[in-house]
Structure formats: structure tokens, C-alpha cells
Amino acid sequence: xxxxxxxxxxxxxxxxxxxxxxxxxxxxxxxxxxxxxxxxxxxxxxxxxxxxxxxxxxxxxxxxxxxxxxxxxxxxxxxxxxxxxxxxxxxxxxxxxxxxxxxxxxxxxxxxxxxxxxxxxxxxxxxxxxxxxxxxxxxxxxxxxxxxxxxxxxxxxxxxxxxxxxxxxxxxxxxxxxxxxxxxxxxxxxxxxxxxxxxxxxxxxxxxxxxxxxxxxxxxxxxxxxxxxxxxxxxxxxxxxxxxxxxxxxxxxxxxxxxxxxxxxxxxxxxxxxxxxxxxxxxxxxxxxxxxxxxxxxxxxxxxxxxxxxxxxxxxxxxxxxxxxxxxxxxxxxxxxxxxxxxxxxxxxxxxxxxxxxxxxxxxxxxxxxxxxxxxxxxxxxxxxxxxxxxxxxxxxxxxxxxxxxxxxxxxxxxxxxxxxxxxxxxxxxxxxxxxxxxxxxxxxxxxxxxxxxxxxxxxxxxxxxxxxxxxxxxxxxxxxxxxxxxxxxxxxxxxxxxxxxxxxxxxxxxxxxxxxxxxxxxxxxxxxxxxxxxxxxxxxxxxxxxxxxxxxxxxxxxxxxxxxxxxxxxxxxxxxxxxxxxxxxxxxxxxxxxxxxxxxxxxxxxxxxxxxxxxxxxxxxxxxxxxxxxxxxxxxxxxxxxxxxxxxxxxxxxxxxxxxxxxxxxxxxxxxxxxxxxxxxxxxxxxxxxxxxxxxxxxxxxxxxxxxxxxxxxxxxxxxxxxxxxxxxxxxxxxxxxxxxxxxxxxxxxxxxxxxxxxxxxxxxxxxxxxxxxxxxxxxxxxxxxxxxxxxxxxxxxxxxxxxxxxxxxxxxxxxxxxxxxxxxxxxxxxxxxxxxxxxxxxxxxxxxxxxxxxxxxxxxxxxxxxxxxxxxxx
Length: 876
Ligand code: ATP
Ligand code: MG
Fold this sequence. Notes:
Layout: H1 6-19, E1 23-24, H2 49-52, E2 62-70, E3 87-96, H3 101-113, E4 125-129, H4 134-143, E5 151-153, E6 158-159, E7 164-175, E8 198-211, E9 217-230, H5 231-238, H6 251-261, H7 269-290, H8 299-315, H9 325-336, H10 341-345, H11 347-381, E10 385-386, H12 388-398, H13 402-411, E11 415-416, H14 418-439, H15 447-450, E12 457-458, E13 465-475, E14 478-480, E15 482-483, E16 487-493, E17 495-496, E18 510-514, E19 517-526, E20 532-540, E21 543-544, E22 548-553, H16 555-579, E23 585-590, E24 595-600, H17 607-622, E25 627-633, H18 634-639, E26 653-659, E27 663-666, E28 681-690, E29 693-700, H19 701-722, H20 729-760, H21 762-765, E30 767-769, E31 772-778, H22 784-797, E32 802-809, E33 812-818, H23 829-839, E34 843-846, E35 850-855, H24 861-875
Parallel strand pairs: 1-2, 4-5, 10-11, 12-17, 31-32
Antiparallel strand pairs: 2-3, 3-9, 4-7, 6-7, 7-8, 8-9, 13-14, 13-16, 13-22, 15-21, 16-20, 18-19, 18-22, 19-20, 23-24, 24-29, 25-26, 26-27, 28-29, 30-31, 32-33, 33-35, 34-35
Helix pairs in contact: 3-4, 6-9, 7-8, 7-9, 7-11, 8-11, 9-11, 11-12, 12-14, 16-17, 23-24
Bound molecules: adenosine-5'-triphosphate (ATP) and magnesium ion.
């Protein structure tokens, strides 16, 4: 057994199966493409579903890949077992209806035991099979010659994720020897049990049944092989490393962490766990961010947030008190960037994202402490126990680590209901597992379309109209020779100008006609073997296979679709020019009336940025740039710097859309010949649609002109209302605003003067209530002090009067009341004030001859003044 590095093992595996005529499929991004059933790519097969369920037939039925995978269901194991990660690499070989069990077993055995490759001692290998899988038993025992005692039957060895292909599996274990038995739970010490001695390295799945919608199982028309071997585990055995973390895939990360923390790995168990957790999580987060995910409060983003928080929490065991994790992303890029180039290319962006999130969490921790203190006070009033569900909420919603809750509670002489917490955690896991199970299923294989192998030529790049022979009529998954019944049907022709939806570009619409027969095409999609399938409504007549029809694409729509498609390419490049190279397409929709482009970027765009982007695109339109479209080998395209769509799978020969070297993209869509055809480009909205993903909607040509026309009409309307020429509008608005300011000032001083006049004429203000002179009025005053001054002023002119004044200022009410000394035996200022203050929602009080108060409800001032008068009336 030769020692090899992780990178060498990956290469060796790919090389081995390449020699066995397998096609190498690149590692797909961790964020699933066109598949909302999965949160993350979690295995090699997850990216190949379209082949497994027959939607697409691969060029070569034998496939090999090294696939990045994220599994969050293993998260609580990470750091505590030798073999679990949240991010790992799965090496897999696959057969789509080609070889089956025997060959799959033979390949695996050869690769593992052949001295030229891994060269394991065969006596250290064990396998498990499904109890009823006699084929597997025979192959292992007879063809391979494995002793029966080393073939273990395990009921759970059946791979079934709901609807779609499924079947028994067989796992291969490596015996690491008795020194690995430590801590294994009783009764678990066998291959397939919960232990570290018998290490599962490879899983071979023999998918031979269709799990149908009704729950029944039927043999699969085309049987598949799906295998997965964990690279890190293989490396740990080959490198004689006690755990995956002691392999060369991890040691550089551990070394960087030693440097950052000043702690040493390999001396203390708790410290080592922290090292493992952090080095695992940094890989996951770095790769996920490189593949377009970003921390947020839901779904995928939430997983990243929790991973970062979990790592930060464990960093406490290393006495780290600052944002640090982002620095490790450099080491991850160094270790892995050779094969997974995007972690290297995007390292700055990755670091920025992680750093921000770490810093945010440090703030969150403070917030968590505040919430904890609330719980503490409550617990102190009750039974001195912090409820399990509260601790869970702290952990789950606020990201406040459970250990911290425990630690604080301990210090405060309280305890935490651990059972309750664990129960909540269990339920959470259950929810996650169910969500995963129900979401993972594939589609049931449909044989009708998969069986059609005659090609259908797509002529739509050059033409919009075509005479074509109808080759297949499919109704409700049945092939027919002719159809007379009106309604929806799927049709295939020997050739077609209709574009099938792909690359964001919508399908063409149009008509199919011959004699009396007339159909309307509503959508077009690609069959498993690549032909365009027309979904159409038969409006009249009969259709027959073998007859010729006129296929006509709706011209007007197509013309606008292609303007928008080329504009989308210009926009993509303009975004990179303006915002930076981290901008990557996250989704695109090209329709006739508008285009929509989603891309990764952290912040909202400023008006200036939007303007710059718009200007760049329009400049490229005005420059009359020619659009060159050509096919070339993918290597050549890469050399030309063609932007490949993230995660898209390309064949060996690719179609390159080159807009005069300004934008060079791999694309199968239809474009204008010259950018001038786009006419005009206008962004109509920019918004955020999720963490770190922005969306731009834009229009071109006539639709862009319409936007300006509408703006012009609005401007004309304003000019008409202002009664000026359009060119004078701004000046006029300025002068109108100046007028308004002036009038406001004038109004204010007029009001003040009127008040003064009113106050100076005491006789006008005063009234007689129950024989007493009373002045009850609202007066202007900027503060309680000003109000008292007004009061003194009035009092000096009317010493015999009971005076109650109110004023309001910014929603607050001030009140003041005086009663002449000689009347205080009958009526007291404090009593009047009490009623007034209550009416305006406040408080007040004072001496019998003088009281002050206030409130917050100015709308009740009139009532308060009336209450004062009523009080006086009833006192005499
Ligand atoms: P285990 O029982 O050890 O958790 P599994 O049965 O869940 O593994 P499979 O789904 O069979 O694993 O995946 C195939 C292979 O991928 C495994 O044999 C193993 O080598 C690797 N693997 C699976 N899960 C992980 C993980 N969390 N971390 C590292 N490698 C893994
Ligand atoms: Mg397994």
C-alpha cells in the first residue's frame, strides 16, 4: 500500500475509471441547479439525477466523478468521530443502464486491492449486503472469492429515497485494527455498526427498481450503478492517519489554526475537538460561498450561518476572542484550489463574507446575553430552572450556544432543563430529516420519450419558418400515429425552428399548420435525447405522423427575445466591469418584453452604479458591435476567456457568443447579429431577492423607449400644471418651493401677532362663570417656561381672575392654572389641574393658588379647558 496525498488519490480514482472507458463528469456546484428538492448536493449521484431517472441520456453511460458534498445531518458528529464531515468529497463511478452488479463489484475490488492502485490487504476488507440480495452474495463470495464470514447481511442496506430508482446496496469496510475499538458502544463492534474499527469507505448502490408513485416497486427498465467513496476516509487509511483530520487534506488547516490561536493540536481532547470542528466548518463554508451560497436567515444561508457560529463557539476552547475563521480560508484555497479552482479564484470574496458574518455573530452574542438575562430573571422568580425550550430558542433563533447558556446559568446558580433542550433538538433534526427525505426523490423513468432516438434538427438559429415531417405524436405518455381530438399534445418533427426553453431564454411560440389542421405551440422543451418537444394545442383537423407541416415561430416575439438575450450578455459584463469580478450569474430570464438577471453581490446598487451600468450597455449598443457565434472545442473557448455559466455542463464542443471581444460567453441561445439591433437599454428595477443575490430587470428597444415616453408624458403633465415650458420646470419648482417657504414664515408671524392682540385684550378673553372672572384659553408657547411667562403677563392684567392656560408643542401639552388667593378657600388650582391633566393624558399638581401639569394628547385641550370651567362653576 503506497502512501498518497488526498489530491493524488482523487486523480488516481478518476484515472482508473477513465481507463475503464468512463467519462469524467466535472464536480458540480454544491448549490443544486434546477433542482429545488435538495438544499445541497450531498452525494455524487445527486448531480446525476437527470441521467438516473431518464430525463437526459448521457453521451457515455459510464461516468466517473469526484463530487463535493455537504451533509448537515452529520453535523453533531463532526469533531467527535474520526470520519464525519459536513463537507467532504465523494468519489464515484456510475453506470446508466450499462454495466451492473458484477462489474461494479469487480471494479471496486480491483481498485482497492490491486497493487497498482490502492493495494489494500484483502484480508482487511469486509462487505455488507442486503439480506435478500443473493446476486450480490454470489458475486462477492464466488467471483471475488471473499470468505462468507466477511460478507455481512444488513437489513438497512437498501437505498430508497422515495419516488424514483432505488435498490439494494453493498458497503465496503476497512478493518483498522483493535486499537480503534476504544469507546465503541456495546454490541456495535462489527462492519456496519457504530464504531471506528470497521470503517465504511465505499458504498455501491445497485439501483434496479422503480419506486412508483403508488408506493409499488417494479423492475427498472434500465438498471443503474451508483457508488460513493469518501476521499477523506480513504486518505486516512492510506496515510495511516488515526482520523480524517490527520490527513494532508486537513493538517495545513490545523497548522494555520495553531498559529492563529497559539493552542496546540494533539494534546487535549476538548481542544482537538475544537480544532476538528473549525477545520471542518471552514472547508464547508469556503466551498459553499465559492459556489454561490451566502449566510442568511433561511435555508442554505442559515446552514452557513450556523456553521460559522458553531465554529466561533468552539473557538472559545482555543481562547480566540476575535473574528479569525476567515483567515483560514486562505489555507483551504491553498490545499484544495488546484482541483476546485473557484475556492482559489474567489478567496477574497469568501474571506470578506466570512469575516462580516463572524463580526456580526460577535454582536449577536451580546444580544444573546441580554436575552439570557431576561430568562435568568424569570427563572429566579420561578423554580430556578431555565426552560429547555427557551435554551433551544436562544440557540436556534439567536445562535446563542447551548454551552454558554449552561455556563451562565451555572454562574448564576441556576440550572437548565437539558432534557427539554435535547427533546427540542431531536424534533428539529426530525424536521430536517423529513424535509430531506421528501425532497430527494427523482422522477419515475418515462420510457416513451427516452426511447425516441432519431435526431431532430434545430434550424432556429437561421430561420423562423420550416417545412418539417411530423415524426412522433405523444398524448398522455403514449405514442400515436394520428390524432383528431382537440386539446394538448406533444409533437416531434425531423426538424424545427422552435427554440426549446434553456439558458434562461423562453421557448418560442407560434403555429403548426397543414391544410385544415392547425395547432398553437404553447411551450417547447428538450427530450432526454435532446430533440425539441413541442407542447401544442390541436385547434382543428387531424394530424398524422409522416406528413409534412409548416412550423412558424411568432416573429414579433422572437425578434424581441433575441434583443434581450444579447443585452443580457452585455449587462453581465457591464456588472462585472462596474461592481467587480465576484458578480456571477445566479439566474436569468429572457422574454420578449423584458429581461431579468440575478447575480451575486452583497449590497444594493447605488443610483450612480445603475447609471454607469446602463451607460456601458448603451455605449456597446451605439458602437454597432458585431456578434460572432462559433463552435469550438471547450479548451479553445476557455483560452479565449469565455465566461462559462456556473455549474452548467458543457460538451466537448461548445457554442461561443462573442460580442466583439467585449463579452465572450458560452451560450446556446439566439442572438442579434449586431448590438445596434438592440436599439436602447434601460434598467427598470434593482432589488435584493435573498442574501447576497440581487436582481435587475431591464427592457430594450421599443419597451425601453416606452419607459422614456411615459416619463416624458409625466413631465409634460407637470409642466402643464405649472403652466411653464418643459425646460422651465425645474426653475419653476424651485421658485414655487421658495414661495411656499416665504408664505409659511409670513403665516407664522401673522398668527403670532393675532395671538398677541388677543391676549392684550383681556376683556375679550375673559368670561364670567358663577360670578367669577375666568380666563381659560389655549395660547402659543414653546415650552412650559414660556407658558408660565404668558400666565404672569395675563395675571398682571387680571388679578381677580381664575386663569387656566394650555399650550402644545410637538405633541406635548403644557398646562398652568392660577387662582387668586382670596378664592382658594372655595376653589383650588391643584384640583382644577388634576382634571385638566387627566383629560390630556397626563399629570399635574401644585399649590392651591398655582398648579402646573402636562400631557400627551393635544386633541383634548378644548375638553380640558371646558373641564376647568365646569369645575369652577360647580365649586361656587
Ligand atoms: P456513515 O454510515 O459512515 O455515516 P453513510 O452510510 O451515511 O456513512 P453513504 O451515504 O453510503 O454514507 O456515502 C458513501 C460514502 O461517502 C461513505 O462510504 C463514506 O466514505 C462517505 N461519507 C458519507 N458521509 C460522510 C461524512 N459525513 N463525512 C465524510 N465522509 C462521508
Ligand atoms: Mg453507507
